[in-house]
Amino acid sequence: MNKQRDDTWTGQFVKNGLNKHNSVESVELLGPKLIRIHRKTHDSVVVATTAVERLDAAAFRAAINGAALHPDYVVNIPAESIVLGDAIQLARQHGVGVGQFKDLMGALGSSDVSRYLSSDIRYVEENLPQHEQVKSIEPLADRHYRIERHALPPAQVVFIHEYDLTVDHVRMAKQRYRSFSAIVITNPNGHATGEAERLAATMNCRIYIWKTFYGALNKRVV
Amino acid sequence: MQFAVTEARAVSSRFPGSDWYLFGSSARDPEHAGDIDLLIVHDGTIESTRLRTELAALCMALPLHLTILTRAEESELNFIARADGCRKISHP
What 3-state class would DSSP assign to A94? Predict the structure, then answer.
């Protein structure tokens, strides 16, 4: 069950948090959960704000429908939250961006906030389908993908952008995404701690960096 | 920010054997920090998921980003020495 709390503070929170953003000229509070951001070099954008633990399609719809104006972006404030695949698909159908506060910060530097993805997830979505074994990819959640392969079984993989992948990241991935056989560290300089490697092995999960993951995609078990 | 520190301190008292720190912009410039970086180092007997459950309400109310390490991991990574402005907030 999604834990919906009072989120009427979120609009003001985002307004305050964007005061020092390089791309932002000014921020208007249109409602407790709706703001308009005037940008220095791009068009202004309307952002709906919310605070839920798991942003699914229902929570996404509630954020859109509760807004007086059609938003360009829905931002979910809790840093430890996740966006589920059905919300991602719905956001893409509506031409609306979706993500956490740090994603919004990144999106504000791009002309079209609705299409913004963090650089490592853009790399996943643009480059992974080009692998000769990959037929298609589908987001199951913000960092969790199902990879269909041509002549091999599908794989469920979590992509984590950390410099140090720890025991906690492995446990958190398991709790959030539940079913996956591999974790890919997307930070080019990232690595896993010894304890994280050992814990993942007990979960029948392998930890890869990009180079080793591309090789593993050619094997039956990823 | 002071609210976050007070609440975190209260939760930390329920996890003996753990040390809690602020780092990053929340430690350097709390007035203008976009989020709050909290480091918890524990002896390995605590499940990090239990820590996250205890902090869930606070994480829902604030942009709190948690880094949780076992002591062995902290030692392997030398995290406290590397982290920007790391300062301890839990009681000794």
Answer: helix
- Better-scored residue on pLDDT, B77 or A78: B77
Tell me which of B25 and A211 has the higher pLDDT: A211
Q: Could you state, in chain order, the average pLDDT of each consecutive group of 10 residues for chain A (222 residues)?
A: 69 87 93 96 96 94 93 90 95 96 92 94 96 97 97 97 95 93 97 97 97 97 94
Cβ neighbours of residue B22 closer than 8 Å, sequence gap 6 or more: B5, B36, B37, B38, B39, B85, B86, B87, B89
The answer to whether ipTM exceeds 0.95 is no
Contact: A166, B35; criterion CB under 8 Å: no
Confirm if A17 and A103 have CB atoms less than 8 A apart.
no
The residue type at B46: I
For tokens 């300089």, the residue is A189
Q: Is the pTM here over 0.90, yes or no?
A: no
Q: Are the beta carbons of B60 and A51 separated by less than 8 Å?
A: yes
Number of CB atoms found within 10 A of residue A174's CB = 18
- Give the residue from B3, B29, B48, B67 with the most A CB atoms within 10 Å of its CB, the best one to mutate: B48
Exposed / middle / buried, residue A22 (Cβ in 10 Å: 0-12, 13-18, 19+): exposed
B77 touching chain A per CB within 8 A: yes
Say which residue the tokens 């990144």 belong to: A106
Mention every residue, 6+ apart, whose C-beta is less than 8 A from residue B13: B90, B91
